[in-house]
Write a sequence for this structure.
């Protein structure tokens, strides 16, 4: 799975944009730690 993030900010009155992909690949959210088996017992 891939994550696409777009950041836009104004610098010196100019509009800049940055595209970041697979940024949180290293760190995974604890919420989606256990996918599939949830609530056992």
């Amino acid at each position: 799975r891939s994550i696409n993030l777009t950041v836009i900010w104004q610098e010196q009155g100019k509009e800049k944009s940055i595209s970041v992909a697979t940024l949180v690949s290293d760190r995974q959210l604890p919420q989606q730690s256990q996918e599939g088996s949830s609530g056992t017992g």
Q: What stands out?
A: The mean pLDDT is 66. The CA atoms of residues 32 and 38 lie 10 Å apart. The first strand starts at residue 4 and ends at 11.
